[in-house]
Amino acid sequence: MTDANTARFNAEALSWDSNPDVQQATALAHKAYLAHLPDAPTLSTFSVLELGCGTGLLSLALAPSVRSLTAIDAAPGMIAALESKLANNPAAPQNVHPIAVLLESPDDPVLNGQRFDLAVSHLVLHHIPDLPAVFRTLHGCLVPGGKVMVTDFENFGPEARRFHPESKMDGVERHGIERGEIRRVLEEAGFKDVKVETAFEMEKRVETEPGNGVLEGRMVFPFLICEGTKA
Ligand SMILES: C[S@@+](CC[C@H](N)C(=O)[O-])C[C@H]1O[C@@H](n2cnc3c(N)ncnc32)[C@H](O)[C@@H]1O
């Protein structure tokens, strides 16, 4: 991630949760994660790392199902928004640990050497310049037998570009993830039993004409869920 990209997410942090498309994508992703993860008793023992947690929409949804959740984001503004939700809501889960960091190594001191049972990430991969590097990092953050499970919209062709308004293309490294590429990247990072499937489809607002800023069009975007296990 570039500094400009982090600055953009800092600026967007306060209004992030008011975007209905973001809320809907999180709700659908949460459902998909629960459908793909082990049963509740096993899941409740998991320590989880979330990369690119934003304001913690998915973190707060998943936290009641797991033992602990370390929520990481490179944008301090996003982490401040999550910290404020945790501090101001007495009903917020107590097992969420937010950290502002651009995670580039499993040996980053912020993790204190902790290794996790599960790594998740939602709507982040399209912002990551170096996908092989991020999956090597996530692989290194897991215990043996640990799982990675990530969701993002699919690059299904040129129309996938319309996921973002033209004014928000800074920091968009790819217009969604590609099935073949993501499978190869997970396998090359060392993951076994790699599966890449359609998780859900979501209708969202798009510009009626690219670049006109009028978000009154609608388009359906497929999302992929990609999983693997560390040997
Ligand atoms: C599109 S937002 C998604 C936020 C959240 N997952 C959601 O769906 O609401 C992408 C987030 O990923 C973060 N990010 C991107 N690369 C990162 C990295 N290597 N480490 C930590 N955070 C990262 C950005 O700061 C940004 O907040």
**What string, H for helix and E for strand, traces the elements in order?**
HHHEHEHEEHEHEE
The parts where pLDDT drops under 50 for at least 5 residues are: none
Level-2 CATH architecture:
3-Layer(aba) Sandwich
Our count of domains comes out at 1
Bound molecules: S-adenosylmethionine
The main sheet comes to: 7 strands, mixed
The helix content, as a percent range, equals 25-40%
Number of DSSP helices? 7
GO molecular function: methyltransferase activity
Keywords: Methyltransferase, Transferase
Protein name: S-adenosyl-L-methionine-dependent methyltransferase
InterPro entries: SAM-dependent_MTases_sf
Topology, element by element:
Blueprint: H1 3-12, H2 20-36, H3 40-43, E1 47-51, H4 57-62, E2 68-73, H5 76-88, E3 96-100, E4 116-122, H6 131-141, E5 142-153, H7 179-188, E6 191-206, E7 217-230
Parallel strand pairs: 1-2, 1-4, 2-3, 4-5
Antiparallel strand pairs: 5-7, 6-7
This protein binds S-adenosylmethionine (SAM).
Keywords: Methyltransferase, Transferase
GO molecular function: methyltransferase activity
Pfam families: Methyltransf_23 (PF13489)
What's this, in brief?
This protein has 231 residues and is α/β, with parallel strands linked by helices.
